[in-house]
Amino acid sequence: MSQGVTPEKLFEGLLTEEGEELCAVLDGGSVPGLLARLESDSSLKVECLFRGELDAGMAEAAPYLVKFEPDSEFAQWLVGTGWGEHWGTFVTSRQGFIKLHHHLRALTLVYRRDGTPLYFRYYDPRVLRIFLPTCTAPQLRQMFGPVDAFLAESETGEAVSIYRLNGEELSTVQRKLGGAR
Q1: Does a structural domain hold residue 37?
Q2: I want to staple 7 with a disulfide (CB 3.0 to 4.6 A). Which of 55, 60, 75, 96 is the partner?
Q3: Is residue 1 assigned to a domain?
Q4: Model pTM?
Q5: How crowded is the C-beta side of 168, counted as CA atoms within 13 Å?
Q6: Whole-number Å distance between alpha carbons of 94 and 39
Q7: What is the mean pLDDT of the segment spanning 153-174?
Q8: Cα–Cα distance measured from residue 83 to residue 107, given in angstroms and rounded to the nearest whole number
């Protein structure tokens, strides 16, 4: 984890539009005890990104969309403990949690040419950082949908990359956060 990275520093100047919400897309496979943590905090709005009834093992490893406030105890824990550990990414949206949930859920499966479904772990910052810059304009529109911005930690956790769709092009800003892993 990057020392000195706080939610205030990470989300500074991010939520500037009226009605813009901040959510985390967290990887249960990377975050120890995530499901128990989410279930124990009734202040969080949480939805699993996998469909249907999941067995216990799959529920533990599944990705979750979590709406939270940047100044919350959850944000302090998430950024203070998980930043630099590839626990997930952050998204902002003005389209509402339900629309965002449906959109992000639809991105979790991709299909091989033979029709075989594969899980697409776009919520892993190591995947997102590589994938988004390679996308065509139609792929970017598909990825962003109701998302205003994707945020992903840098490889070292010393910076955050903020990705936005600017017309047909990907706009990327990398902001240094300080500290070292």
Answers
A1: yes
A2: 75
A3: no
A4: 0.92
A5: 3
A6: 25
A7: 95
A8: 23
